Amino acid sequence: MTPINSRTKGHDFERWVAKWFRGLFPKAKVTRGQQAHSAEEVPDVLVSSRPWLWIECKRPARAAIYAYWEQAVEACGSKIPIVVLRANHKPPLVLLSLPHWGWILKVLGRAKHAYHTITER
Q1: Residue 30: in which H helix or E strand, if any?
Q2: Do 50 and 80 meet the contact criterion of CB atoms below 8 Å apart?
Q3: Are 80 and 58 in contact (CB under 8 A)?
Q4: Domains of the chain (ranges plus CATH)?
Q5: How is 44-111 classified by DSSP, letter by letter?
Q6: Continuous segment of H or E residues that includes residue 22
Q7: Residue 69 CB: number of other CB atoms within 10 A?
Q8: What are the angstrom distances between the C-alpha of 91 and each of 42, 55, 58?
Q9: 70-96 burial by CB neighbour count: b if 16+ within 10 A, else e?
Q10: Is residue 30 classed exposed, middle or buried when 0-12, 13-18 and 19+ CB atoms within 10 A define those classes?
Q11: Are 81 and 97 contacting, i.e. CB atoms less than 8 angstroms apart?
């Protein structure tokens, strides 16, 4: 794949992830980060109601999971790094640290209907 096609594939995936988050948080403003327009690091997808999230999107032919993870961790500062990735012909996956996953499970455990709400999407 040529670099231009690869970049287009990555941008298309960022738009897909942003749309997915809009469906999950319909009242939030969800936008794609504009890396080229800013001197500072910005995530690929921003969710206004969840400013503590740092969402990176990767759409490789083959996934280099730890390289993507290290990039997100180095760039996120004090935010929670999340990598959404999808290799060719594979379903999308999310990378999240085990401590952050535990935090999410605790939060879901406090919400009586949270599991059903998420799994219905």
Answers
A1: strand 30-32
A2: no
A3: no
A4: 3-119 (3.40.1350)
A5: SEEETT-TTEEEEEE--SS--HHHHHHHHHHHHTTSEEEEEE--TTS--EEE--HHHHHHHHHHHHHS
A6: helix 3-24
A7: 19
A8: 25, 17, 12
A9: ebbeeebeeebbbbbbbbeeeeeeebb
A10: buried
A11: yes
For 43-66, letters b (16+ CB in 10 Å) and e give bbbbbeebeebbbbbbbbeebeee
Q: What angle do CA 28, 32, 35 make, to 5 degrees?
A: 140
Both tokens of 5, joined, read: 């096609």
End-to-end CA separation in angstroms for the chain: 33
pLDDT tens by residue, 2-21: 666 878 888 999 999 999 99
Supply 92's token pair.
């999308």
Q: What are the tens digits of pLDDT across the range 56-108? A: 999 988 778 999 999 999 999 999 999 999 988 889 999 999 999 998 888 87
d(CA 89, CA 17): 16
